[in-house]
Design a protein that fits this description.
With 424 residues, the protein is mostly beta strands. It has 3 helices and 34 strands. The strands form 9 sheets. Strands 1, 2, 3, 4 and 7 form a 5-stranded antiparallel beta sheet that branches.
Length: 424
């Protein structure tokens, strides 16, 4: 502005308001403060020893003698201010300056670099002021491309993008709005001129990753097709994802029907391991069981179970096994077995005792020997002549270290070897 002074000289007064509304872009918080800068001149000549007051803050800037007329007020919040020129020998003058926050995005949901985003999520952008919805819509893009709809709240300060289909499994998506991720460059003074500039506009971008493949069973107790499951052990399954426990319970059944209770534990992921315990404390001896977890079982993200691990959600998981022979009755069994059989030890893995069952078809010299993984004999459990029948022997491995061991049953006509695992 050009003003006439008391001494009839002409003075130039200038004031510039700069507000840098930095966006929360790649985890850098946006700046909430601005500054007012300017110079006081007599015509084109900067004045020395200027006095400038800022209202309503009542801050005073006292100039120097370096012939620049420069003043600066910083750390200012958005709002209306008055710059009052009080330099001695010149008329009082006032310039009104308004600091206005720029229209930058302040928050997004999901936030940048977030993982395990549900496939049915919406994406929201919260702006710090009312936006031009047509411009934002034209600048909006997704990678990979997602079909969907855009909606706004009543004040046009929050935009919601709703995908029309479920997002892909374990996919990194980037959502961008071109031109809204840049801020004003720092203010530079050259030859008493205030220069502000925008560099090439950058997009506001947020990247996130969706949940992994549909939940599957990664471990079970007993193992599939186990033929010697200890009746007092619990049935357990571990899922690849945190599960919705209510849906899993509703989808669970065991045949023959058996009453039981459910508990859940966490192994790396919350509620990803289910344990089912028979109400009576044990299953029946020598019984074929089938455990089914139906397609209605879902993860906490709403993904249906992938029972057969084909990466397609919505098929049940089936576990079949047979329980052990009653060890209290087989040793006295008098009926003649049909074949020579060496059974899998139970429990397996074990600590520190396990039971090894076997049968022989006729009277014979029998040896049952345990070896370590290098083939060295550890102990002899049986070395005598036995009548035809069914037998069970307990091995106490308290004096041995954890690891894989082999046990061999030999008669005059047959030999069989199996493996077992000691875990302490």
């Amino acid at each position: 502005e050009t003003r006439r002074l008391l001494n009839n000289d002409v003075r130039k007064v200038e004031a510039y308001g700069i507000y840098n509304g930095f966006v929360e872009y790649y985890k850098i918080p946006y700046d909430t403060l601005g500054m007012i800068i300017g110079s006081q001149k007599n015509g084109t000549t900067p004045l020395n020893n200027i006095v400038v007051r800022l209202l309503p803050n009542n801050k005073v800037y006292n100039g120097d003698t370096y012939n620049n007329g420069f003043f600066l007020f910083d750390s200012l919040v958005p709002g209306d201010y008055k710059v009052v020129y009080e330099t001695p020998g010149y008329a009082l003058d006032t310039v009104t300056v308004t600091l206005t926050a720029t229209g930058r995005i302040a928050t997004t949901n999901p936030v940048n670099d977030q993982t395990n985003i549900p496939r049915n999520s919406t994406i929201t952008f919260n702006f710090i002021k009312q936006m031009d919805t047509a411009f934002v819509r034209s600048a909006f893009s997704t990678s990979p491309a997602i079909a969907g709809t855009i909606s706004w709240n009543a004040g046009n300060t929050m935009m919601t993008f709703t995908p029309s289909v479920l997002l892909g499994y374990k996919t990194i998506y980037t959502i961008s709005i071109a031109g809204l991720g840049n801020t004003l460059q720092p203010v530079v003074f050259v030859d008493n001129k205030t220069i502000t500039s925008n560099v090439a506009a950058k997009p506001l971008a947020v990247s996130f990753q969706t949940v992994s493949l549909p939940p599957s069973i990664i471990l079970s107790q007993p193992l599939q097709n186990d033929t010697n499951f200890t009746i007092t052990q619990n049935v357990g399954v571990r899922f690849s994802e945190s599960m919705d426990t209510a849906s899993v319970r509703a989808a669970f059944q065991i045949v023959p029907a058996t009453v039981g209770t459910f508990t859940w534990t966490s192994s790396g992921l919350q509620n990803n391991t289910m344990i089912w315990k028979p109400a009576s404390g044990s299953l029946a001896f020598k019984t074929n069981y089938t455990v089914i977890i139906g397609a209605g079982a879902k993860s906490i993200y709403g993904s249906a179970i992938d029972g057969n691990k084909d990466s397609v959600a919505g098929d049940p998981f089936t576990l079949q096994f047979r329980t052990q022979i009653d060890p209290t009755s087989v040793s006295s069994e008098t009926s003649k077995p049909l074949t020579f059989v060496l059974q899998q030890n139970y429990p397996n893995p074990f600590n520190p005792t396990t039971i090894i069952g076997f049968s022989i078809a006729e009277i014979s010299s029998v040896s049952l020997t345990v070896y370590d993984v290098l083939g060295r004999e550890i102990t002899s459990l049986v070395n005598e002549k036995l009548n035809q029948g069914v037998y069970s022997i307990q091995w106490d491995a308290k004096n041995y270290s954890s690891g894989i061991y082999f046990y061999k049953l030999s008669t005059e006509k047959n030999t069989s070897i199996k493996r077992m695992l000691l875990v302490k």
